[in-house]
Structure formats: C-alpha cells, structure tokens
Amino acid sequence: MAEKSGRNKSIDELTAEIAQSRERLARDVRGLRYELDFPAKFRRSFREQTVSWLTAAAAVGALIALAPMRKKKIYIDAKNSRKSKKKLVEAGFAVAVLKIAANLARPVIVEFVKNRLTDFGRQSRRKT
C-alpha cells in the first residue's frame, strides 16, 4: 500500500511528475474559481431564464407590498375619548405655535449662521 521511494526515479521523471501535478492543481483551481464565481452565474442564469427571474421578482415584490395590508383592530374606551380629543387639540395648537415661531425666527438664525461662517472663513485665510 505504501508508495515506493522516489529515489530510484530520474530527475527528468520527477520534473515531469511535478509539472503534471502543477497542471492538475491549476486545472482544479480554475474549476474552483469557475464554481465560486456567483455573479457570473447569476448573470448567465438571468440571460438564460429571464422570464423566470422577472416572475420571481414580481412575486416577491407583491408579497412585500401586500403583507402589511392586514387590518389591525383598535379598541377605544368611550370614557377616555373626550380626554384624548382634548389632548389632540392641545398638541395641534402647540405644533401651530412652534411653526409660527420657527417661521419668525428663521431669518435671524440664517443671518447668524451666515455671519459665523463668513467670520470663520476670514480667520482661516489669515492663518495661511
């Protein structure tokens, strides 16, 4: 079962054996590279089976789009509905006031930021 020692082989035979081994290894590496080239496999598969890929993509898209469409039941306590409406009105009023304040303060903030940036630019030019 054990192989015989290679000491009796000539140098030419050993060189030929090494060359064959390298060729087998190179062929195996090329085959492995071909098998692991998934982007090329996907492109080839898409070229050969375009309709199947497009159908599968449409099915997945439809599942994603239609999945969240189930209706959720919400139970509301009739006693707390008046309080929630009052809180909703208060929140709407607060948002309206904040929006008006932001619109009034926007020109002041823009001018402040513009002045800071121009001052920063002048200082950086002086240093260089």
Compose a concise summary of this entry.
The protein has 128 residues and is mainly alpha-helical.
What does this 3D model show about the protein?
It is a single chain. The chain has four helices and no strands. The protein is elongated and about 100 Å long. Helices cover 78% and strands 0% of the residues. The protein has helices at 11-35, 38-48, 50-66, 81-127. α2 (38-48) crosses α3 (50-66). With 128 residues, it is an all-alpha fold.
Name a few traits of the molecule.
128 residues, mainly alpha, 2 domains, elongated
What is the strand tally?
A: 0
Structural class: mainly alpha
Sketch the major β-sheet.
Answer: none
Arithmetic mean pLDDT: 83
**N- to C-terminal separation?**
81 Å
| 3D shape | elongated
Q: How many alpha or pi helices?
A: 4
Classify the beta-strand content into a percent band.
Answer: under 5%
Provide the succession of SSEs. Answer: HHHH
Number of domains: 2
Low-confidence segments: none
The amount of helix comes to over 70%
Radius of gyration: 38 Å
Describe how the helices and strands are arranged.
Elements: H1 11-35, H2 38-48, H3 50-66, H4 81-127
